[in-house]
Amino acid sequence: MPRELLSGIDRHQWPAHIAVIMDGNGRWAQRQGLPRIEGHRRGVESVRRVTEECARLDIDQLTLYCLSSENWKRPQAELDFLMHLLEQYMIEERSTIMQNNIRVCTIGRREGIPETVQREIDKTITLSANNCGTQLCLAINYGGRCELLDAVHNIASAVRDNRLQLDEISEQTIDAQLYTAGMSDPDLLIRTAGEMRISNFLLWQISYSEIWVTDRCWPEFQEDHLHEAIRDYASRERRFGGLRR
């Protein structure tokens, strides 16, 4: 049920699709005098809280930026731990996912993801495929520019093979070739840890998303902060380039 911050707000004013750049795990850990990997471990707890709350609030889709294509530049030990956390999450959260009627999917390239992790991801996706509640989309080894590049390659191949004419290419053509094909664009983009940048996340899809930034690092993010972001979103007037009526 909605908490106090959401009381009195028309349900139709809520975002249907919320995307989150989960930033600040390492910085939070360092401030606590803990190793960076402990920040990632605590960040999983925030994932659980926010996912379950979105399911309770009946949010259509939650997209979480778990691992960017640029994150491979990090130390190998940290990357190994992130892969371990991802595999562990996929196994340990299955019962919670099913109890909350959550449907899991992923976007991003599979290259570089260990096969053992890929197997557990695929098991969870298959297990939850018939659920009809909130869709949890995990962006793993994802980069907005890579996504657009892959879409351009696919469209160019279709033109080369005479399956598509140049004058037939439209925004819908591009939409259909993105990793997010068939999904709605995010209404609300949340970024934690106070950073004022997009970080190569859903570059095409967030063209008209409302952005909400908090100084809190991801391990500190609670249900009330989610409610605060939704309330702020509901107070905004979305004109999509038009004029106020």
Task: Give a brief description.
This protein is α/β, with parallel strands linked by helices and 245 residues long. Helix content is 41%, strand content 14%.
Q: Can you describe this structure?
A:
This protein has a single domain, classed as Undecaprenyl pyrophosphate synthetase (3-Layer(aba) Sandwich), CATH 3.40.1180.10. The protein has eight helices and six strands, in the order E-H-H-E-H-H-E-H-E-H-H-E-E-H. The protein has helices at 25-31, 36-56, 76-92, 94-99, 115-127, 144-160, 171-177, 223-234; strands spanning 17-21, 61-68, 103-107, 135-142, 188-191, 210-213. The protein has a six-stranded parallel β-sheet with strand order 3-4-2-1-5-6, with helices on both faces. Strand 3 (103-107), helix 5 and strand 4 (135-142) form a beta-alpha-beta unit. The longest helix has 21 residues, at 36-56.
Question: What topology does this entry show?
Answer:
Layout lengths: L16 E5 L3 H7 L4 H21 L4 E8 L7 H17 L1 H6 L3 E5 L7 H13 L7 E8 L1 H17 L10 H7 L10 E4 L18 E4 L9 H12 L11
Parallel strand pairs: 1-2, 1-5, 2-4, 3-4, 5-6
Q: Which residues sit in consecutive blocks of at least 5 with pLDDT less than 50?
A: none
Number of strands: 6
The value of Rg in angstroms is: 19 Å
Decide which structural class fits the backbone. alpha/beta
Mean pLDDT: 95
Terminal Cα separation, in Å?
33 Å
SSE sequence, one letter per element = EHHEHHEHEHHEEH
Oligomer description: single chain
CATH architecture: 3-Layer(aba) Sandwich
Number of helices: 8
Highest CATH level, the class: Alpha Beta
CATH superfamily: Decaprenyl diphosphate synthase-like
As for the CATH topology, it is Undecaprenyl pyrophosphate synthetase
Report strand %. 5-15%
Tell me the count of domains.
1
Shape: globular
Helix fraction, binned, reads 40-55%
Strand order of the largest sheet: 3-4-2-1-5-6
